[in-house]
Amino acid sequence: MICPPAPSPSPAQPGAGAWRVSGRWFREATGAKVYLRGVTYGPFKPNAQGLPWPEEARLQDDFRKMAALDFNTVRVYEPPTEAVLQAARDTGLRLLVGIPWTQHVDFLSEPAIQAEAITRVQDAARRLGRDPVVAGLLVGNEIEKTLVRWMRPEPVRRFLEKLIATVKTEAPDLPVAYASYPSTEYLVPRNADFVAFNVFLEDKDRFEAYLKRLQILADGKPLVISEFGLDSKKHGEAAQARTLQWQQEAVQRSAVAGNFWFSFTDEWHRGGEEITGWEFGLVTRDRQPKLASEGLAAIPQGPPQSQPRISVIVCTRNGSATLRNCLAALGTQTYSNYEVLVIDDGSTDQTPGIAREFPFVKYHHQPPGGLSAARNHGMRLATGEILAYTDDDCIPDEDWLRYLAPAFDEPSWVAAGGPNLPPPPRSLTEACVAAAPGAPAHVLMGNEEAEHLPGCNLAIRKAALEAIGGFRVEFTTAGDDVDVCWRLQEQGGRLRFVPAAVVWHHRRFTVSAYLRQQTGYGLAEALLIGHFPKRFAWLGGARWRGAIYGDETYHGDLERQHIHFGSHGLAPFQCIYTGSGDTLAHWMSGLPWLVGSVAALALGFLHLAWLVVPALMLVLSIRVASKRAAMNDFMLIAHTWRHRALLWTLCFIQPVVRDWARLRGMMRYHALPKGKLQWPWKTAPLTLTPERAEGAQFAFWSADGVGREAWLEAFAKELQETHDLRCRPAGDWSLWDGSFADSGTRLRYVTVTEYHGGGMCLTRVKASTWSPGIPLFSALFYLSLILVRYLNWGGGLLLLSMVVPYLILVLGSILVLRRYKVAAQQAAKSVGMVPITPKQAPSLKSRNLHLPATALDSR
């Protein structure tokens, strides 16, 4: 796919105003897009003043050299001093500032470390937040993958989101993010303004393929490659120069919003030591240019692209409130070969007059016939080979058509579309509606191919649409886009997702309008069931083959996702995998679950003991709604209890309203789904978090670099030889390293090694016991109490038969835990580790080795 060139880098002039995030791009104060063409700088050994920067003369000279290489942004790993800020001002460069804190240890177990991190981030935001030379802040950088697994992904993400919220409190307009990397791909804070990834892939094809995936993870935000480079000491300067060339071409084709080359100079200092084994710089330590620096005179431009004729079709009915902004945006398109048709479906407001305000618009009126009829009318009138549909409440980005056109570079791609993002809300009610579920969303079957593209941002080959007979006219308000996408695919066509082809799509402005929209979606689904009965399940709506873009897969609780950690958590690429179809959350919400809860509640009054069943069902339904509300709470522009309550209410009633409308439509249209019923635990694996066993955590110190791998091997050997127990690997999808079973109890254990410099390591080990029989006997014990109390059964022997096995299982757990402790201590001793107490561990954290983790892990 040939994409248009990225926006030309805009040099930052002193006093030109701060850069801000808008959609998938950064923008200047004037509104013009700006591409972050950056290079990393540092970290350095302390200078004569004890500061981690070069001497001032060298600093000024370095910034002049970076500006001469046509960079406009510099990524630094320490809060800049006044000398650094002045050097940036003097050379017209902006700074992407990393905030260092102690992230190489288990910081979630140490409140003091968390407080230190919050204080550092807060101080940096206060000092730098209003300085236009600062392009953004990074609140962390590549927390090591096994450490994230140890602390668990969801709590780590929540802490990063807390740091970002701290920045937003002090500097609301300053762009802020966290720099992740492929080994913790899932660790993307939901309240970040942009998505930053350090990616060191030396193969061009793999790098370009991974950029497509990162654009999906970016979810409508700017994607910034915050580190990429090649070691010239290992590969040679010529290979480094070639890599720099194709890497910049790749990010330009992929519509990346920013790209940072690692690094400007070979001079690099980390953990109290000068790094001499690597040479990633564009210049040497003494600032002599390498071959790679010679190719940086300008951003490479893509080859000339063909410009097929595009007909933009805007269908409207009484859309005067938003139509003017839509047409004004279409008049600023950077693509030249296009026309704009407004199809008025019987409007009775000022729509005709607004359309005639724009000379380039071709206005056509038709009697009221519905959305599909209007879209077909536009298809017949269009002169372009590509039909680009959008709605009257959308504001297309100025490069919308420029990015859509190249998506049709192969005949197999018959349709294409990009994200539809909500514009900044004008009220808190609008913010709640925008954050509520049920908005138009893409369904993706990969990083590029889509199963569904919403009609507000949908381009189709005219010949392909005519071949299937256009849109079905019975879809008057919604569902037409799903129907046409499925029919195009049935004819062998493919749908392409284009992340940079953005339209801003207003969600509904009021709660009543939102509920009417969800009702319309439910009725449209009933119509779709009539045409595609096998594509719908009995209780869960549409059965998609792909994953819904922007749903709870990426925004939801990471503990409930299926993450590929790899053996012992060491996989270099750790992705979230999700199944299609009904999830457990869908089963616990919506009309069927609510009706079942009420019915069970009514039956429960026949005997009070059985009220636990409907009570549990209602609690689960409320919990699902609460999780959905919490998932999108960060989208609110204010966090008052009233608007959180409104968001929670919308999350609770939305599936009920939509299910009820679908059920009414199924009865009206005599439509019956024929999809197979699939149980939720088969389609959406549920990760249960076991409780930490008392006294099951150890810490072992090594001054010789002995880490977790040596301990794991010694532990398995110790169990086998001393206790005749066999360790079982936990598998690539587990938060645990392994397990063993004895006396009806299974013990799972996990490890992590913290690196404290100079070859010194702290390895942590924790375990949890779990007996499958305990919950079973607990349930039976509860049932026996009911039988004894209400059926007047003789209860002594019955209760005893329940209690004794339960106590045996508890004693078995104690025995297994004791054997684990003995084996763990012996394994550590055999590999030369020294046991320490938890109270001793914090004293080992004086070495703050936060800069940058990339070097240890991803090169």
How is this structure best described in words?
This protein is α/β, with parallel strands linked by helices and 859 residues long. It has four domains: 276 residues, Alpha-Beta Barrel (TIM Barrel), CATH 3.20.20; 200 residues, Spore Coat Polysaccharide Biosynthesis Protein SpsA, Chain A (Alpha-Beta Complex); 104 residues, no CATH class; 148 residues. Helix content is 38%, strand content 18%. It has 26 helices and 34 strands. The strands form seven sheets. It has a ten-stranded mixed β-sheet, sandwiched between helices. An eight-stranded parallel β-barrel has the order 4-5-6-7-8-9-10-11, surrounded by five helices. The protein has a six-stranded antiparallel β-sheet with strand order 30-31-32-33-29-34, sandwiched between helices. Helix 2 links the parallel strand 5 and strand 6. Helix 19 packs antiparallel against helix 20. The radius of gyration is 30 Å and the shape is globular. The two termini are 28 Å apart.
